[in-house]
Amino acid sequence: xxxxxxxxxxxxxxxxxxxxxxxxxxxxxxxxxxxxxxxxxxxxxxxxxxxxxxxxxxxxxxxxxxxxxxxxxxxxxxxxxxxxxxxxxxxxxxxxxxxxxxxxxxxxxxxxxxxxxxxxxxxxxxxxxxxxxxxxxxxxxxxxxxxxxxxxxxxxxxxxxxxxxxxxxxxxxxxxxxxxxxxxxxxxxxxxxxxxxxxxxxxxxxxxxxxxxxxxxxxxxxxxxxxxxxxxxxxxxxxxxxxxxxxxxxxxxxxxxxxxxxxxxxxxxxx
Length: 271
Hints:
- The chain has 271 residues and is mainly alpha-helical.
- It folds into two domains: 219 residues; 33 residues.
- It is 78% helix and 3% strand.
- A two-stranded antiparallel sheet has the order 1-2.
- Helix 2 packs parallel to helix 8.
- The longest helix has 35 residues.
- The protein is globular.
- It starts with a helix and ends in a 9-residue tail after the last helix.
- About 6% of the residues have low confidence.
């Protein structure tokens, strides 16, 4: 075991595979991180950071556990049943991986749609303050939030590990890459969640990302593979446009503040 690890450390190809895999795992972790950030921001402020850390910690445990059972993971790609539909535009033969991706995609679409509905739904004026609070707060229970995070961790972990298996055959490289990627997620979790919480338009953009990711997972489960590069390029472009909008709004607010400060105030007339 030690000799094999030493051989990997002295192999340039292994280092190249590690760097590539870390980059891939970090990119794949963005989806998971966005979901955790939005979900944790629905909790009371004193529970948010702890919930994010628990969720990301569970993602690490789950991915390392899946790597430890690599044979079982590879079995998820074996066909389970076939619909037997001839001439269909999608794969009619489904594996456990396909079923997991479809279930995760449906959950993401449902969750993002529900969050968007709560964001745009207006509360009637005659509702009491208590009723209004109940409608605005989607999640008030830490256990419920962690349970939902675990469900999505499972989907993203299976997708992540199967991607890693396709890039290298060395389990130690996969484990190191997963650990580095999850630690990166842990460092980025609080800043990203705080940024999303302070910018309502970014929340809607992130929910749109989750809708798109959910649709892609469902399509992938049915054998319609959308290149991940297209997805992340679209997300990056949308984020860039939103960044320009935020910069424009901030510049306008600063200009209005300066004009208000420089505007001469009328003298108070004495009675």
